[in-house]
Design a protein that fits this description.
This protein is of the alpha+beta class and 334 residues long. It has three domains: 8-105 and 316-323, 3-Layer(aba) Sandwich (Rossmann fold); 134-186, Dna Ligase, domain 1 (2-Layer Sandwich), CATH 3.30.1490; 189-310, ATP-grasp fold, B domain (D-amino Acid Aminotransferase, Chain A, domain 1, 2-Layer Sandwich), CATH 3.30.470.20. Helix content is 28%, strand content 23%. The chain is built from nine helices and 13 strands. The chain has helices at residues 17-28, 63-74, 87-99, 109-116, 118-127, 169-178, 229-241, 273-278, 283-291, and strands at residues 8-12, 32-37, 51-54, 78-80, 135-136, 150-154, 182-186, 191-199, 205-216, 219-226, 246-254, 260-266, 308-310. The strands form three sheets. A six-stranded antiparallel β-sheet has the order 12-11-8-9-10-13. It has a four-stranded parallel β-sheet with strand order 3-2-1-4, covered by helices on one side. Helix 2 packs across helix 3 (87-99) and helix 4 packs across helix 5 (118-127). The protein starts with 7 loop residues before the first strand and ends in a 24-residue tail after the last strand.
Length: 334
């Protein structure tokens, strides 16, 4: 059973699908949600019953003080990151936050940076013999085989921002100059999938597999649950290789010849996890159990295959910005 005690949980990044969905799921479980984002019009601020607060961006020098003061002022019980950018500063703040009674469930710093940095992720998986796209630095483009398709993306990025598919080496060179901190990867074709994962404090992992049947701007629009032992096992190997803890999502491809390739691991919940919960896996409830030191019941993380999800953009709210009642704590950039 999930933890039934109502908690005050701060969720970061409620302007994006993962944080938005996580806040909504926690509310359904009866918890009190403090929703934070750097954008005063973040969609998660308009969920019923959240406490919305504008905070600085994760790379802003005022971020640590804003988070710390907010947690103290509201007696926050725990923080769960809804976006990767918040993980490094929360790691730096962990000792201070935990001294104030705020719980976090994060991997170690090396694990976080090995996932956020796509070049380091490639090197980590390669060292463990896990198939992942070939990767090059921009200055090594001359070493790239001429017969493969390429992807140019930020070495540190999220949400498919800044990702480009060049059709020639010449285009790739230009894009590497335009994309900040670019890397070049081999483009993989096939059936794209996401694995929603929860790794308990003893290292046991539950994995729920979803096909990404239709993707728009990096977000899944249509998804279907499925089972595949080879994919499951490779995802577990990936989680072990990066020493994942708590919630994460792994993405990859199954090529037409049945090979499985892992493309990324995000140390937060996925945007389409609502399908995982609809398929019977108590993902957020069991995360809350682990977050507050209770055992994760992996029997509650089984799921039905053949369940589908379809997403469509909807308008949450229209109104006068001068009438908003979203609070900006000291140091915030509202």
């Amino acid at each position: 059973m999930p933890d039934q005690t109502p908690r005050r949980i701060l969720v970061t990044g409620v302007g994006a699908n993962p944080g938005f969905g996580l806040a909504r799921s926690l509310l359904r479980l009866g918890h009190r949600v403090v929703a934070v984002d750097a954008n005063p019009l973040a969609p998660g601020f308009f969920l019923d019953d959240v406490s919305p607060y504008v905070i600085p961006r994760a790379d802003d020098p005022d971020y640590p003080e804003a988070i710390t003061e907010l947690c103290r002022a509201l007696a926050v019980d725990a923080i769960v990151a809804g976006i990767e950018n918040d993980l490094p500063p929360l790691l730096d703040l962990r000792a201070r936050l935990e001294a104030d009674g705020v719980r976090l469930w994060l991997p170690d710093a090396e694990s976080v940076h090995n996932c956020i940095d796509k070049a380091r992720f490639h090197d980590t998986l390669t060292e463990h013999g896990i198939p992942t796209p070939r990767t090059w630095d921009p200055e090594d483009l001359d070493l790239v085989p001429a017969d493969i398709e390429l992807v140019v993306k930020p070495r540190v990025g999220h949400g498919a921002q800044g990702v480009h598919m060049p059709t020639s080496r010449r285009q790739a060179r230009v894009l590497c100059e335009l994309v900040p901190g670019a890397i070049v990867q081999e483009r993989i074709h096939g059936t794209e999938f996401t694995a929603d994962c929860l790794v308990d404090r003893e290292g046991r992992a539950s994995v729920i597999l979803r096909r990404r049947d239709l993707v728009r701007a990096g977000c899944v629009a249509v998804s279907t649950t499925f089972e595949d032992q080879a994919v499951h096992d490779l995802v577990v190997d990936t989680l072990r290789a990066v020493r994942a803890q708590g919630l994460s999502c792994v993405q990859g491809f199954i090529t037409d010849d049945g090979r499985v390739t892992i493309t990324e691991l995000n140390g937060r919940i996925a945007g389409g996890f609502a399908l995982t919960e609809a398929a019977g896996a108590d993902l957020v409830g069991q995360m809350v159990n682990g977050l507050f030191g209770r055992p994760v019941d992996h029997d509650q993380l089984t799921y039905r295959t053949g369940m589908f999800l379809t997403n469509f953009l909807e308008t949450l709210r229209v109104g006068d910005v001068t009438e908003l009642e979203i609070v900006a704590p000291r140091g915030a950039t509202a």
